[in-house]
Design brief:
This protein is α+β, with helices and mostly antiparallel strands and 294 residues long. The protein is built from seven helices and twelve strands. The strands form four sheets. A four-stranded antiparallel beta sheet has the order 1-8-9-5. A four-stranded antiparallel beta sheet has the order 2-3-4-10. A two-stranded antiparallel sheet has the order 6-7. A hairpin with a 3-residue loop joins strand 8 and strand 9. It is globular and about 55 Å long. It binds a DNA duplex (14 and 14 nucleotides) through loops.
Amino acid sequence: MPELPEVETIRQDLRKKLLNKKIVQVVVVREKAIRETKFALPEKLIGNKVVEIERVGKLIMLKLQKPALYLLVHLKMTGQLIYKSKNNIVVGGHSLTEGTKSHGEVSWELPDKHTQIIIEFEKDGTLYFNDMRRFGYARLVTPEQKELIAATYGIEPLTKNFTLTNLTELLKKKKTNLKALLLNQAFIAGIGNIYADEICHMAGVLPDRNTATLKDVEIKKLFQATQKVIKLAVKERGTTFNSYVDSDGKKGNFVRFLKVYERSKMKCLTCKIAIIQKKKVAGRGTHYCLKCQR
DNA sequence: CCTTGTGTTCTCCG
DNA sequence: CCGGAGAACACAAG
């Protein structure tokens, strides 16, 4: 599931790959992959350039030059944005990449049966929006619409707006459980099911705790755990459980740091004594250790 | 049946 | 009875 660390990895990589390159072709394979928009995608994209790539929560925003619009892409559960470079350096009549997998090259044929949208860049390569479960979408909006959408998101955990004071205020004024608060994009942006469970575990707090009952020392641990988990996950290029891959088609490395997520009935990796429990909290499968978390 | 992120709808409470 | 908050449901497909 692409959450903040996965989407941020894709954003950083794609910036290096497609900034300021001219779009020469756009193919919308599945029309329903484009959410309601008053613009025709190929008409506005062909001849245009991506001049910046931003991220708000789990939403990727590609800033276009002229006309000045934003292409928003949400990957939801199984969406992928994969860039396949042409990378056919011909030396002495032989292509170096033919039949080989050079660095940065996608290891399978694209487009495939899950490809929704194809965007081709001049002389360089092609961006594929793939989505097996078809929850994700692309959407073309004006800068004004983009700002309105960004404004619906809460605090970004990796910015200076995420402070102990802000988190304390949030936890004390909301009447809900910790897991629901962490998952709510309007409160804190970018956290999904994997990182919510990992943050609660590192903080030593149970996910079903009512946020109003949290003590100051627990709130401080939650604040630190949120930053630690998200920062490390970005450094490790995200978590691959099922379908997540980066823009090179490669998996994330954070799975080996997971302490509770998808580890129910297994021994806790922190205390090495208790067995990881699983139950539904805030409508989602939730993993925790009863010895390490209170 | 289960899984998840988010938009929509429902329900509750002051 | 109104408004807002939060919970529950709907969605897709493997």
